[in-house]
Design goal:
heterodimer, A: 343 residues, mainly alpha, 14 helices, 0% strand, B: 259 residues, alpha/beta, six-stranded mixed β-sheet, four-stranded antiparallel β-sheet, 9 helices, 12 strands, binds adenosine-5'-triphosphate, binds magnesium ion, ABC_transporter-like_CS (chain B), nucleotide-binding (chain B), transport (chain B)
Chain lengths: 343, 259
């Protein structure tokens, strides 16, 4: 009889691999860029940040400031956004028992888009602290509307369809607003296409609490998401209040996704693809998919952002464009490479 | 001792009554077999007894009304095997059986050693140890059925509701599962309610047989009294001979009409 490797062992290997990839992504992304600084000095400078450590070969003060105040916060923000989007996507996929659902689908993306558009059109600028707040609130409101419109029915597909309807409605309102104020088109579109270029430590800190609470909320429900896979009636017969779990996970995923959307605009793809790769690596249990998604999502978006800011240097590509441009072929490659190895 | 009771239990879907006025009492370690033609309402009755459907009338385990019970305490009381369980293709057998432990775990806690022990011994009893790492999608029909039964046993309930748990089993495995349930109910003092189409099996294992037709109880009592050739002919529109074996239990033999 053929015996597959035990999922726990596969998970251990996959998580180690993912953490190594994350470390490599961190190093590559902090080295690559306009100002050529070498990996050794970067490592030394980072290690010197630890209290009481003074190794030689650190960067000179100017490069050090570039690394610590510009490159690093951006890198961390990209990683945070990537990890959070992947976790939120996985959470929704568990709730809807559908591996193709994205974190934006339930109204979060459209709500954030409308919120940001209203502020950009209203103030005539996409800078400032108000746009993220509006996007954050818009995302949560979008999901809230979708939930109110579609919950209460026995089947989850109603909720999903309600999310799509709410999204279409909000997008239509957004288009209407934009039509009446075409001078802001450029600013709105560059926000929509996603970017972490304005990253500061301040932004990282503002996003962090929501991201942590949201992700933690999803993480704590890994076992419950596995249980939802047998359907509401059986899950209930096994002792889990299915509707309540669904609401909690949706709320947590929405919070996490909203925090990411607020600081980075709309970045699709990550939420669908990364959990899928995680499944291929370590099996379908959400107890394993969620942590792997966090790490892989972070690594992926760090690398993508590095490409986004270097490939047409000194200009920049929107991160959403790069995600699709390199992400899509990479995804196909991963699907083919892992086919069969993860049965 | 555990007692499962139903009084005037009714189930209605979209304005149509599919189960009406069912009264029953089963005391552990008794085994009640529910039989009846397709669409008679057997599965609906079992789901109602599991507390999974809105019902009219009452259903209770001892003095606890099922209607007012939350899922977790209910799942510690009642183990339920659906007729057509949802089996997530990619889930390994061990993880699936572990789902049966849900009601014994704290909301945020994972499986404890004792839970792994229970799952291990259930897999062992059902001869599923070779399958622990296999994905559900790769199992045969009979293996699936045994895995779902294993999940219900892992719940360690006092009431077992089984909806056609042997429909896909070969003769040997059917006997094995029925003997297993028979042993368990005596050892752990369980109430067992099971639906089955094999009338001979119903007669051989049941303390009581309940015959359901179009949602209503036609007969309820010892197998030999319920399963008569005339009654089977009128409810199932089937020609059968019924013989009684040495232990006084009925054996139902289908016959070609007109022979
Ligand atoms: N959700 C539902 N909505 C409407 N009608 C339903 C629903 N579920 C069951 N029914 C109907 O209720 C009747 C009883 O169904 P049930 O599944 O209880 O029968 P059964 O005795 O288990 O049949 P079988 O032997 O084929 O399993 C059938 O006529 C069925 O079509
Ligand atoms: Mg049935």
């Amino acid at each position: 009889m053929r015996r597959a490797a035990l999922p726990e062992h596969r998970f251990g290997r996959a998580l180690t691999l993912a953490l190594l990839v994350l470390l490599a992504a961190l190093l590559i992304s902090s080295v690559v860029g306009a100002a050529g600084i070498d990996p050794l000095s970067v490592s030394v400078t980072l290690i010197n940040e630890l209290p009481g450590v003074h190794l030689p070969h650190a960067l000179d003060p100017l490069d050090r400031t570039l690394l610590l105040e510009i490159r690093l916060p951006r890198l961390i923000l990209a990683g945070l956004v990537g990890g959070v989007l992947a976790v939120a996507g996985a959470g929704y996929q568990g709730v809807f028992r559908n591996p193709l659902v994205d974190s934006g689908l339930l109204g979060a993306s459209a709500g954030a888009g409308l919120g940001a558009t209203l502020v950009i059109v209203g103030t005539g600028s996409s800078d400032g602290a108000v746009v993220p707040v509006a996007a954050f609130v818009g995302a949560l409101l979008g999901v809230g509307f979708a939930y109110l419109a579609g919950a209460g029915r026995r089947d989850v597909s109603t909720l999903l369809l309600a999310g799509i309807a709410v999204s279409m409605f909000l997008s239509a309102v957004q288009t209407f607003v934009l039509q009446r104020s075409t001078q802001n088109l450029q600013a709105v579109y560059s926000w929509l296409l996603g970017s972490v270029s304005g990253a500061t430590w301040h932004r990282v800190l503002i996003m962090l609490p929501y991201a942590v609470v949201g992700c933690l909320g999803v993480f704590l429900h890994g076992r419950h998401l596995d249980l939802l896979a047998v359907g509401d009636e059986e899950a209930t017969s096994l002792g889990m209040p299915a509707a309540r779990v669904r609401l909690l996970v949706i709320a947590a995923s929405a919070l996490a996704a909203a925090s990411a959307v607020a600081v980075s605009g709309l970045i699709g793809f990550v939420g669908v693809v990364i959990p899928h790769v995680a499944r291929r690596l370590a099996g379908s249990s959400y107890r394993r998919v969620l942590p792997l998604s966090l790490v892989l999502g972070a690594a992926f978006l760090m690398l993508v952002d590095t490409v986004a800011r270097t490939i047409v240097s000194p200009g920049e590509l929107p991160i959403g464009v790069v995600t699709a441009l390199i992400g899509a072929p990479a995804f196909v490659w991963v699907l083919r490479a892992l086919r069969g190895s993860a049965t | 001792m555990t007692r499962l009771t139903a009084r005037g239990l009714g189930v209605r879907f979209d304005g149509v009554d599919v189960v009406t006025g069912v009264d029953l009492t089963v005391e552990s370690p008794d085994w009640l077999m529910i039989v009846g033609p397709n669409g008679a309402g057997k599965s609906s009755l079992v789901r109602a007894l599991a507390g999974l459907l809105p019902v009219s009338g009452r259903a209770a385990v001892d003095d606890v009304e099922l209607a007012g019970l939350r899922p977790r305490p209910r799942a510690r009381l009642i183990g339920y095997v659906p007729q057509a369980p949802v089996l997530p293709e990619a889930m390994p057998v061990a993880d699936y059986v572990m789902l049966g432990r849900t009601a014994h775990l704290g909301y945020f806690s994972g499986p404890r050693p004792v839970d792994r022990e229970v799952v291990g011994s259930v897999l062992d009893t059902l001869e599923l140890t070779d399958f622990t790492a296999r994905e559900l999608g790769s199992l045969s029909g009979g293996e699936r059925q045994r895995v779902t039964l294993a999940r219900a046993l892992a719940q360690e309930p006092t009431v077992l509701l089984l909806d056609e748990p042997t429909s896909a089993l070969d003769l040997g495995h059917q006997q094995q599962v029925l003997e297993l349930v028979d042993g368990l109910r005596h050892r752990h003092d369980l109430v067992v309610v099971m639906t089955v189409h094999d009338l001979t099996a119903a007669g051989q294992y049941a303390d009581r047989v309940l015959l359901l037709d179009r949602g209503a109880v036609v007969a309820d009592g010892p197998a030999a009294q319920v399963l008569t050739a005339e009654r089977i002919a009128s409810v199932y529109h089937a020609d059968v001979r019924v013989e009684v074996d040495d232990s006084g239990r009925p054996v139902v033999i289908p016959a070609r009409p007109g022979t």
